[in-house]
Design a protein that fits this description.
globular; 3 helices; alpha+beta
Length: about 110
């Protein structure tokens, strides 16, 4: 079984970008638990912009600061690897979806 993770982020006042990452069954169980824990922290974030990176970031509201008591540096790096990054960075993760792929077919 193959999986894909889709992370949709806001880069500038409603300009959304998405990154799709392939995920193998080999690391699914352990990685799934980590992803769910990170997404819960993001969902529970009380500030408006929950994942500020690049030029979209306010220095005192980057993930390393707002999640310092909840997420490890490894967790933040993991989420950064899954997240899209626009021309000027991103400021909000809008959604995270996991797709289960039974069959994938290239048509072009």
């Amino acid at each position: 079984m193959k999986y894909k993770i889709l992370v949709k982020a806001d880069t500038n006042d409603g300009d959304y970008i998405t990154k799709v990452t392939d995920w193998t069954e080999k690391n699914y169980t352990t990685t799934y638990a980590k992803l769910i824990r990170i997404c819960k922290a993001i969902k529970d974030c009380k500030i408006g912009h929950n994942w500020q990176r690049g030029d979209c970031a306010n220095d005192n509201q980057i993930p390393e600061i707002i999640y310092k008591d909840i997420l490890s540096e490894e967790d933040i790096d993991f989420m950064d690897d899954l997240s899209p990054y626009g021309e000027y960075g991103i400021h909000t993760i809008e959604s995270v979806k996991i797709l289960t792929i039974e069959k994938e077919e290239n048509v072009i």
